[in-house]
Every structure is written in structure tokens, then in C-alpha cells.
Amino acid sequence: MDFDLSWLLLGLPLAFILGWLASRFDLRQLRLENRQAPKAYFRGLNFLLNEQQDQAIDAFIEAVQNDPDTQELHFALGNLFRRRGEYQRAVRVHEHLLSRADLSRADRNRAQHALAQDFLRAGLLDRAEAALQKLEGTIYENDARMALLGIYERSREWTQAEAVARKLDESEQASYGTRRGHYLCEQASELAARGDADGAIALLQQAAQVAPAAPRPAIDLAALQLQQGAPAQAFATLKALAETAPLALPLYATLMQQAAAASQHSGEALALLQRRYAAAPSIDVLDAIVALGGSTSLEEIDDAGSSDTVTVANPRDSYVAHLQHHPSLVAASRWLAGERFEREALHPPVQRALDQAVRPLMRYRCAACGFEAHQYFWHCPGCQAWDSYPPRRVEEL
């Protein structure tokens, strides 16, 4: 059977035409998809700028479907889900990114950081902790350590918090010595509650070395020494603290008075308190002075208008001396509480009313968030800030 060359001549042009048509179709489809993907992306960006997050999410989902290999779209979509509070969807997006084998190391670390943020915002602290620990040695290392500090503080895992704070301290980007001192004091408090006084004292001494300018280690140490029956040591600890942290004296004036009275150092303590009170008057320091039987100076004015400073005989009259220069409802209430009046039967209800009015003035107020409490906090329960409470009552601010 002879081969007919006419079929070959007809087939070659036909194959060429079909191939050309197929290539044109592929190019047209490719152009269409490329036009759709940027169009969806810019539409989503426009929605995002107009704060229309629902429409932006729909547009980005469309863009991701048209171009599933684009990492930036995945990151944008995941961040949008997180901002919307749709944490499960954000987690799925970032876990999908991490499952891709073609992801660069930089994008993988970025996805890991985003995943940790998803878990943090969702309140899944254990999963957030595991995700943050994987960022060690990356550019997100310090951010991850700060987030871990927050987790450990919320869960009161002070040993882990101190270890992380030590790493941050060693990075030399900021000083975390004071924060480490607080963590050691918290550990010491837990040991003391379990009856391990020796271990608590060792931790407090370590805290004093880590944070030499912080008053808390010495105050906690003196309180523990007094509790353990060593008032002389407690007084020595607070006496040294008065030289390094005089502004914090209102926080430990009562403790110093108790330690001095129990160790026969009342005279020395009284002289120190009177000297500090003269430099910086405070109702707490004045209370300690009165409790030790001491007094302050009272300014007397005669009929001619001249004044003379005398030392009051009754220690309680020191509150009146305080009132001359520092109007204080607290000091007035303290003085009235021990006075005897002609109509004594009316004194108790009046005193109760005064005490009730004084209670808000005796609170401490956080300088960061304004949270008020009758107890002094080193760690604010409201905003979680450290050392945000001034050592003075609300009335004295």
C-alpha cells in the first residue's frame, strides 16, 4: 500500500493551526487568572482601608483561591481573621503555611510568630507557650520572650519567669534586674508559706543582689526575720534600707517600729523616723512615730502674730502638728479617735462616720491605670504593671 503524501501535506498545517489555537487559549486563560487575582487583591485592600473587614476577607479568600502559592495573601488573611476574633480560622491559615515544604526560613519563622499570636489572643496559653518557645534563635526571639513573661506572670510560674527575664537581661537590650528581683521575692513568698524559711531567706538575699536599688527584697526579708523571732536582724535590715531607699519609708515604717520595739532599738528608730518625717512628711511615718511614743514639732502663734516652734508633750498631738502644714482628714481622724469630749455618747457615731470617710483616702493608686486598693501591690492587679504604685496614700498624692 503506497503512502499518500497528500495527507501529510494536509495534516501538518492542521496540526500547526490546532497547536496555535491551544496556546492562545492557555495564554488567554492565564491572562484572565492573572487579572482576576490582582483585581481581588486590590478589591480586598480597598475594603480593608474602608474598615469593611467582612468584604475584605471575602476578597482575600478569592485571591488565595486564584493564587494559592502567595504567602503574603495568607498572612494578610490570617491577620484579618485574628483581628476579627476568628482565631480558629487564623490558626488554620498559619498552620497551612507551616505545612508547606517550599516555605522559606524567614516566612516559616513569621508564620510561627503569627500562630503564637493566634493562640495568645485565643487564651490558649499552653499552646501559645509551645509556639513561642520555637521562636528561640529567630528575629522574633525577644518578642517571644516578652510574651512568655506575660504568660508566666498570669499563671504565677515565677521560676520560669525568672529564667526568661535572665535571658532578656543578658541580651543587654534592657535591664530586667528589678523584674527578676520581684520574681525571686514571689518564689520566696511561696517557700515561706510552705514553712521553708531558710530557702525563702536565701532567695530574698539573692533578690537583693540582683536588684540592689529595689526596696521589696529588704522589706520582705525584714518581715520574715521578724516573723522568725529575729527582730534585731529585721531592724538592721530596715535601717540599711532607709539609707538606700528613703522614699519607700512609708511602706516599712510600721514594720520598723515593730522590729525596733521588739529589739530594744526604739530610741534609734524614733530618731531615724523623726529625721525622715522632717524631710518628707507622711501619715504612715507619723503613725510609727506616735506608736513609739515620740512626737513632732508644733508651731504656736501668739496674739502678736509671732510664731514659735515647740515639741508637743502628748505624742498624739503630733497629728495636730501635722495638720498645721498638711491638711489631712486621716490625721484629724487619728487625733479625734483618742480624745474625750463633754458629750462622749455622741463620739462613737461621729468617729465611725469619719473612719468611713477616711477609708478611700487610705488607698494606694496605680499611676499607670488608676486602680485603687487598700493593700499596697508591687504588681498591679488591674494593668499587670510592676512598681506602678507610689508609696503614698491617695490623700498624700
Number of helices: 18
Q: How much strand? A: under 5%
Task: Give the proportion of residues in helices.
Answer: 55-70%
Largest sheet: 2 strands, antiparallel
Derived structural class: mainly alpha
Q: What order do the helices and strands follow? A: HHHHHHHHHHHHHHHEEHHHEE
> How confident overall, as mean pLDDT?
80
CA-CA gap between termini: 115 Å
Task: Produce the secondary structure layout.
Layout: H1 5-49, H2 53-66, H3 71-83, H4 87-99, H5 105-122, H6 125-133, H7 141-154, H8 158-170, H9 177-193, H10 197-210, H11 216-227, H12 231-244, H13 249-262, H14 266-279, H15 283-291, E1 297-301, E2 307-311, H16 318-325, H17 329-337, H18 347-358, E3 364-365, E4 372-373
Antiparallel strand pairs: 1-2, 3-4
Account of the protein in words:
- This protein is mostly helical and about 400 residues long.
- It has a domain at about 250-360.
- Helices cover about 65% and strands about 5% of the residues.
- Strands 1-2 form a two-stranded antiparallel ribbon. A two-stranded antiparallel ribbon has the order 3-4.
- It is a single-pass membrane protein.
- It is found in: Cell inner membrane.
Q: Key terms for this structure?
A:
18 helices; Lipopolysaccharide assembly protein B; two-stranded antiparallel ribbon; 397 residues; mainly alpha; metal-binding; TPR-like_helical_dom_sf
